[in-house]
Amino acid sequence: MRLQMNSVAVDAQPLQPIQCACTNLKMAARIVGRAYDMALGPAGVNATQYAILVNVRRYQPISQMRLAAHLGLERTTLYRAVDILEGHGLLKATPSGEGVTQVLALTPRGEQITTQARREWEQVQQRFQRAFGTARWSEFLHTLAEIRQHFGDRVDDAPPIRRVRRHSRAIRRR
């Protein structure tokens, strides 16, 4: 059933494929992220938290700044996630002795949760890889690395982004 609005059919025009690389990557990332979040749910973590835990396990002790850079996360995003994981007793952040830099390590409970989450992650990861096949999977990872390299060079040198406030005067509804 089509809606009528001032005698013009709403939603009558077919939607065209989206050509924007950014929009397509974000759409894919949301879908994939939800699949991983659902798979990791029984372990009590989401995909971002799991990535933090597994990489802290791999490189511990590791500074928050180095981990943020490795995961491509803004430091403030990582700090908020670390606060949550630390609050749940999964991580321990300790001063490095160099300014405000914190060093991360897993707690025994963090080790247990990471091991449990790994089993859940492996299942969804294997399904993903099987769906693409070995050659396409390898090509996919290579393409993602190229994208990060291409845009990373430009983003690292860019001035800070001024975020638009949700209720900015410039875009208020009248």
Overview of this structure, please?
With 174 residues, the chain is mostly helical. The longest helix is centred in the last third of the chain and has 25 residues, at 108-132. The strands form 2 sheets. The protein has a 3-stranded antiparallel β-sheet. The protein is globular and about 65 Å long. The chain contains 6 helices and 5 strands. It has a single domain, classed as Orthogonal Bundle (Arc Repressor Mutant, subunit A). It has helices spanning 21-40, 47-59, 64-71, 75-87, 108-132, 134-157; strands spanning 3-5, 8-10, 62-63, 91-95, 102-106.
Describe the structure concisely for a colleague.
This protein is mainly α.
SSE layout and pairing:
Blueprint: E1 3-5, E2 8-10, H1 21-40, H2 47-59, E3 62-63, H3 64-71, H4 75-87, E4 91-95, E5 102-106, H5 108-132, H6 134-157
Antiparallel strand pairs: 1-2, 3-5, 4-5
Helix pairs in contact: 1-5, 2-5, 3-4
